[in-house]
Amino acid sequence: MYRLCEEKIKAWFKNKEDALLITGARQVGKTYIIRKVLKELHISYFEINFYHQPEIADEILKTSDIKELVNKFFLYSPIPLEKGKSVIFLDEVQEFPEIITKIKFLVDDKTFKYILSGSLLGVELKGIRSLPVGYLEEIKMYPLSFFEFALALGERNDVLTYLKTCYENKSVVDSIIHSRMLKIFYYYLVVGGMPKVVQTFLETKNLLRIEEEQKNILALYRTDFSKYEQLDRRLKIISIYDNIPTQLNKQNLKFVFTYLNKELKFDRYEQSFLWLKEAGVAYPCYICQEPKMPLEISKEKNNFKLFSSDVGLLVSYYPYRAKLDLLAENVSKELNNGALFESFVAQTIASGNKNLYYYKSNKIGEIDFLIENSMQLIAIEVKSGSDYKIHRSLDKLITNYHIDEAIVLSTENIEVDGKINYVPIYLSELLFFEDKKDFYLDINL
Known about the structure:
alpha/beta; 18% strand; globular; five-stranded mixed sheet
């Protein structure tokens, strides 16, 4: 499966002297993509997995002399390594995050290039004494985006280029292509973007097998959650994470703490919410007191919606019948389709390395998302039904505040009506991925 971050990794090999750190939640494909790029570039490498090879990790950590450490890489490697050409790939570094403090000296040594990979590093790196600023470039990985998913299903790159052109020119998408993309979108809601789940979908097209793979990933997540809860009894990570589907299936998507425990308040749970965010498995979308930049200033830290990092994992909690309804593009009695659409958009925004915000007031109503993009404020409404042109809150916001751009995301085609841009929800990626838009023209798949 092609991932857009492959281009960034290849560019790092060609142009950078620093080390590369690939981070992201578990099972998003970090190890796979690093191996894939190394093999494609015919680069010899020595892979050390700190989870499965703790004895090597211990040797690395207790070796203070860099020359001696480099010699150990030569000795431990099962294949011959070349000075100035080979790569040392340090995987699962969250098990021994102290290794990152040695990277500055290893980079200065210049014998090898270094790639590091790990999960939960947003959590783990807080305990590191000092990070090697200027010596470590970070790339965050996420589940497959919709476009990556479409490519995995066999969609051609020139079709994605065509969609990009339609979006930029605000021209209507061909009706056949539009219908095809919507079908893929509904597949994405059920399957999600976790690589192993996508692979299972491609191989079997079996909903039960897909759900089984999703449950396996959730079990791995809970193992991590449990480990950290044992280390810090104040954390309530599992109960919060498992409550996300229930909270999002309400009419009002705001996370209500009393659903967890009527006796406890936000202050008791705050560290758990932050843990989930730093681990990259859930995204809080904070309410803002004012729809003005910078949004961070007016956010309320204890008033938010909480979205899963992968919409497929979210849908895995729901009954089989509901998934069939989604695939048939029907409204399900068991699912809040509006919440699923919002979850898809939230996941897309977050994977563009942007914070999530929304706005709600008695005077205006609720605006699903507010985004700061290229120093512009964008207001976004997400519509799952046929009434996509009814958006009173958005109309009021435009009238009462300076909004640079207003967008309605729905299953309908591209259209411009006054200050409102109507965009198919499957093109959400192009709204937020400014640094990636050109890849669909430049890469040769």
